[in-house]
Amino acid sequence: DVKVTQSSRYLVKRTGEKVFLECVQDMDHENMFWYRQDPGLGLRLIYFSYDVKMKEKGDIPEGYSVSREKKERFSLILESASTNQTSMYLCASSLSRVGTGGTGELFFGEGSRLTVL
Amino acid sequence: DQQVKQNSPSLSVQEGRISILNCDYTNSMFDYFLWYKKYPAEGPTFLISISSIKDKNEDGRFTVFLNKSAKHLSLHIVPSQPGDSAVYFCAAFPWGGSEKLVFGKGTKLTVNP
Asked: Is pLDDT at A102 greater than 90 in this prediction?
């Protein structure tokens, strides 16, 4: 089974703190994603990476950055946390749809609930 | 502009009856559709998918129907069980090998015993 592991299930941080959310996948997937989920807004894509050291902005990248130094690890960084970044953060990975015959199905981690005070 | 729409934020159904969750899309350039289920405090899990070249896909109690002319898909759960109570997300891949799923906002299904 594919396993996507997020380092922290629950975090509480103060405004202005730097926050790191770590995600590791064990299935050698090319693609990794960071989403946030908020009530009534569904899943919104923050950043996407299709290869090591490659990244692409999603729909709401402002206030976030990412790092992918190794294929299995994708980190989300909040340089200076703000209260409007209180949310559920979801990491996902997928096999590339191109050239693999795969469906591109996303496999999600269990989520990290971040509260910024 | 939202390309994948789930117009019902919530749905309540009696145990044993059929649950029908609907999803509309505004862009014809989607080639693959998926449904995800999400319980509180957990990540979404893949449920069922359908290619744009098909109009139906079935997996046990779950069936997805695709009506391309109406740009509409639906998820049928028969019979519904209390354990099906969750938020259901419809999602679609754009044509051309895009790796980025476009998600709807979700429908919260409650199955009452």
From this structure: no
